Amino acid sequence: MVQSGLWMGSVGTQCATFGQKLLMLSYDKESLTLSRLSLHFALTVVPLYLKSNAENRFVNKEWLQKALNVGEHIAIALSIINFFRFLKTGKKPSLVDFFLGLDIISLRSNQRNVGYKYMTRELIWGGFMELIGLILPLINIHKVQRIIKSAFKGEVLSGVNFVTPRLTAMTVCGFCGDRPTLPHHMGCCGEVFCYYCLQGNLESDSQFCCVKCGVKVQGVYELC
Predict the structure, then answer these.
(1) How far is it, in rounded angstroms, from Cα 147 to Cα 156?
(2) Nearest Cα to Cα of residue 31 among 99, 111, 88
(3) How many CB atoms are located within 10 Å of the residue 14 CB?
(4) Residue 194 and residue 162: Cα distance in Å, rounded?
(5) Alpha-carbon distance 81 to 76, whole Å?
(6) Is the pTM of this model over 0.70?
């Protein structure tokens, strides 16, 4: 309901989003026909409602959740491709605008091409920051570091002399550097980790190695 109200208060009645209004831009009313307006609502508001509704009502239907995730990933990939197209042409910044063929015009008295560099600068940088914010959380920095280290140091060690881990007042997690929460170890050099740090890295990187001795994880053991 909130999304529908925001859409009606912007594109539905003003033919422009709130961001476009701030930049003195608007959709071309001649190209924004009733059918395109309906499709714009269906492509921007309806998918968000359906996704939220399905996640809340059909939690136990695993196939539906997988289908939603696949659809979301496809939409993100297409948005990234469209973003680079927009950087080149300066027209139709969003995927919906591209599919519907919606043109954006200036609301100033001296009509200018929306591709004019000063007018599109904010749009470009705004889209670029959104792209960075989308990609960075998907990158496993520690996995990248492991791959780079293994490329320079050679093959990952498969075993090392076992050292009995000890928990003292000065012991910190080998990964986050804080006092270990639910202390665990990997059965190698005696380095102690938080359970969540160790298990989280194992789930995101099956080849995770000890940050101290470089041994590949053989198991997760609770520190008694």
Answers:
(1) 10
(2) 99
(3) 14
(4) 19
(5) 9
(6) no
